[in-house]
Amino acid sequence: MSAPGIIVAGLRKRFGTTLALDGMSFAVHPGLVTGFVGPNGAGKSTTMRVVLGLDAVDEGTALIDGRPYRRLRRPLTHVGSLLDAAALHPGRSARNHLLWLAHSQGLPGRRADQVIEEVGLSSAARRKAGGYSLGMRQRLGIAAALLGDPPIIMLDEPFNGMDPEGIVWMRGFLRSLAAQGRAVLVSSHLMSELQDTADQLVAVGRGKVIADTSVTGLIEAASRNRVAVRTTVPA
Ligand code: ADP
Ligand code: MG
C-alpha cells in the first residue's frame, strides 16, 4: 500500500474553553477519496487548517508526505485546498483571478484556462466574479486549488451552495481527482453527500474520530482497482 499523503496524529487544540480537537487521528491515501464527515463544530475545518499550518496545535502532529506543511519544498503546488468559498474581487473575471494566481505561483498562464475547463467554468470565465453564485464560487476556488497540479487536495465543504446538478458533477469530479492518483480529503456535514463518493469515511464528532472505515474502504477500492493491499499489521 502506498504511503499516506496526509497523516493526522493525536491533534489536540483548545480555543479558550472550547476543546476543538481532542485527539484527532487518521490517514489520507493517494488514489482515494477520503470523506471527512461530522456535524458542524466537530473539528473538520480546524483539522484542515492545522494540516495547512494555519492553526497551531497544543499537541499532536500533521504531516504531508512525511513532512510538516512548513517544510514542504513547494507547498502551494504540493497541497491544493479550498477552505471557504473563494474571496473574490467582484469586478474581476474568474479567468483574471486565476491568471493572477498562476502568475503569483510562477505557473504558466495556460494553467488558468486548463483548470477553468476542468471545473466546468469555461462559459462563465470571462464574466465578473461578483455575479457568481455560491456554487460557481466553489468551482472557482477548486480551480485555484488545482492550478499547481497538486498531488494532495483538501476541500472543506465543497458541496455547500451547489445545486443538484452541481452535486452530481462534484461527486464525479472528486472520483476523477482520485483516479488521477491524488490523495483527496473532502469534508461535509452531510453523510449523504459523501457516502457513495468516498472510498473511506472518517466520521468525527467533538474533535475526534468516532468511526473510520479506512480498512474496509481500502479493501474495496483495491479490489475495484485490482491492486494488492496488505491488511495485516507488521509485527
Ligand atoms: P467543523 O468544521 O467540523 O464545523 P470547526 O473546526 O470549525 O468545526 O470548529 C470546531 C470547534 O472549534 C467549534 O466549537 C468552533 O466553534 C471552535 N472554533 C473553531 N475556530 C475557532 C476560532 N478561531 N476561535 C474560537 N473557536 C473556534
Ligand atoms: Mg467547517
TrEMBL record:
UniProt keyword terms in alphabetical order: ATP-binding, Nucleotide-binding, Transport
Entry annotated with the keyword Lipid biosynthesis: no
Residues of the ABC transporter domain: 6-231
Top-level taxon in the UniProt lineage: Bacteria
GO molecular function, one term: ATP binding
Membrane-spanning intervals of the chain: none
Similarity comment: Belongs to the ABC transporter superfamily.
Name this polypeptide is given: ABC-2 type transport system ATP-binding protein
Organism, scientific name: Kribbella antiqua
